[in-house]
Structure formats: C-alpha cells, structure tokens
Amino acid sequence: MKVAIIGGTGYVGLITGLGLALHGHDIICMDTDTRKIAALNNRELPIYEDGLAELLKEATDRNKVFFTNCLQTAVNKSEIIMIAVGTPESTNGETDLSHLIQALKLVANLMDSYRTIVIKSTVPVGTCDLARTIIKDNLKNRFIPFDIVSNPEFLREGNAVRDFLNPDRIVIGVDNPESAVIMKELYQTFKVPIVLTDTRSAEMVKYACNAYLATRISFINEIAEISEKVNADIHAILESMKLDKRIGGLYLNPGPGFGGPCLTKDLKSLISFASKAKAELPLFKAVLERNEVQINNIIKFVISELKDIRGQKITVLGLSFKAGTNDTRNSPALHLLEKLIDPKIRIHVYDPVVKSIEEPLNSRVSFSKSIEEAVRNTDCLIVMTEWPEFKELDLETVYHLMRNPLIVDTRNIFPYNKALSLGFRYKGIGIGIGIACADNSNGTLKNII
User: Fold this and answer.
1) Which of 152, 187, 310, 381 could form a disulfide with 344 if both were Cys (CB 3.0 to 4.6 A apart)?
2) CATH of the domain at 128
3) Residue 188 lies in a domain
4) What share of the chain is helix, strand, coil (3-state, %, to 5)?
C-alpha cells in the first residue's frame, strides 16, 4: 500500500515508515525539517536508536521509502496518511495539539479523493472526533470522503525498532468498517493480535498502558526506599516478586525514576483530560509525585556523603533517559544536573552517544571524551544510564582512578559485594550504603528452592 508519514523524521514517524517499508509498503516520509530530510536522503540518521541504521539501509536498498518536505507530494501519492507529529506537554500539563491541528488543516486542503487518515501521535481521548471536524472544515470540496483512524504506537525508545517489527499487538480504532478493512490490509503481514475497537477506546489504550508502567516504576522505587531504611536487599525482594505470575518482572527495576518523552507527559495529559471529564485520579497524581522524590533522594545522599562540596569533582555517567537512544527529553540525568549545578562543584559527564545537551546545562558541565577521563580524580561517581559499556567497567581500575571511592549506582548495574570488597562506599537503589547482600552479582539469588 502507499502510505505517507507526516512528521516522518521523528522517532515514531521514522521508525513507523521504515518498518512499514520493510513489510513491502511504499512509504513517503514527509517533514518540514529540510535538514533532516536532506540527511535521510543521504542515508544519514537524525536520531540515534539501536537497529535504526540497519533498518534505514534495508528500506532504501529496496527502494521502498522516499523522503520529502513536500506535503502535496505526500498527500497526492498516498492512500493512507499517517500523522506522527509531536504532541508536547503545554505549560498547564495539557497536550499541545497545535502541530496536529496544523497538519490536519494542510492535509485536508490538499485532498482530492478518499483518504484514510491515521493518527499515530499520542493524543487525548476525543481527538479523533476533533480531527474529523477539522478535516471537514478545511476540505476544498466538502463531498470528498475520508476516515479518521486511531492507531497508537507502543514503541520503547532504545528498543523501538524491535518493538515495531515484533509488536505484542496492534491497536486500531475505527468508526467506519471501510477503514477497518484498509488497516487490516496494511498490517496483514504482522502475525500478531489486532485489537479492533472504536477511536476513543484506542486513544485511551495508550494512556492506560503508560499510566500502568509509570505506576509500577514508582511502586518499586517506593519499595526500594523502604528496603534501604530497614536494611533489606531489593534484589532478593525483586527475585521473589518476579516469580509471581501475577506480577512478572518488566518495568519493576528500581532506579532514578521514569523519564523520556512519554510517561510523564502522558500522565499529566491523562490527569488533565480526566479532570475535564470530572474523574478524580489521586493514584496517578501520587505516581508523579513519587517520581520527583527519586532525584531529590540522590541529591541529598551525595551532599551528605561529600559533606563539604567545595572543589569536589562529581562524575555523571549517562545522559540519555535510557540506554539505546540519544534522547535526553525529560531525562533523570538532566534533572539531576539541574539540581546539582553549583559554582562550588566541578561536574564532569560522559555518555557514549550524547555529546551535548541544551543550554544552560551544556556550558555548565565538562564533557569527557572517555570514561577514564571522566572518572579520574573524581570524588563521586553517579551512574544514571544503564549503557552496556558502563556495566563492563573494571571496578578495580575505577577504584584506583578515583580520588574518593564513592559510587552512587542508580541503575544497580555493578556487583556491589565486589564494590564493597574493593573499598568503595557503594550506594544502589534499594540498597543501604555498606550493606552486603546474598550474592556477588547484584544480589540475584542463584539457588531457588
């Protein structure tokens, strides 16, 4: 099928377009950012994501994807128009739909025959109804037929390519049987369950999933804090919890709190439009509040351990909000830096893919070219992202490079009994400083009877 992706150079748009191209569809990725379009036509990626370079090569080698900044070309040469523009958080927590509304108006003005218009962007419940009105009001010929479809994405950054190519399910929200047939044809090569529902239910699915995942993260971080206070080992607790089939292990690892472009934004949006619908959401408000506690706890601990912070060097490993991506939007690492920045402290950072961040932070930290450079003569090492190369660090070498052997491991990636034996003051999440655990590999119980 012929599919246009509006907003086709972003995370969702680009991965969706290249993924559909791999499934044999003819894809036009359209975006107003001429720089990104030029880069993609030169086979250069505007973002970093595991597996995306290989996906781009395969799609372009098959001649199944075309990149353009011409909206008319995208509309005229497609049967399906997918809109994957950004829907950022506004100042009051609501979702900013301005980019989506503008895209809908422009698409409607260029339509000359039936199109299936698919909204991939995460939007509040009822947006498809709004989109239908916008299209009707902006058609040059009001008799041109069209359908609006909700087709939410469930891509985890760092794993987004694999998530698209091997999804758990595909959710399609339609209000017309004709568009259901078209969407089933689009996804017929995906051998996974297809959930067919109405547009409002499909819009709600994404919020329900993200709210649940955020709740799990805040829940386990709260359990981890209790564990620290009573000298329990969070890893032993987790191992037992994960064996319970009702619970499982995904999104149940303690850490610096959830970040990225989705969970916080979607929770705030959910709370906002739920309030307008006169629904009270005390649980989800508490989930957001708990998430703020994580960074504050880390800051308090570092200050208490260093005591006099004047002239101290602090090293932060990892800037992206998770491994496998260069996305720093709402990254816990950046929230940490914002609260840690002080003229009295020297802050050095290292990330394998993120080499700059937005001002004013960028000019207030020192970027190291290597882990060794970042760690040398540091007084406190804070691990914020679980990059594989951090997990492979030789702790004995790190110990000898540091001036003050203090590690704050917010991802619990190091074998902390080994860290203790080497002489580190080691602090994980859910592990009190200096607390030995049952096993040398992050407390995982090897023998389950």
Assistant:
1) 310
2) 3.40.50.720
3) yes
4) 45, 15, 45
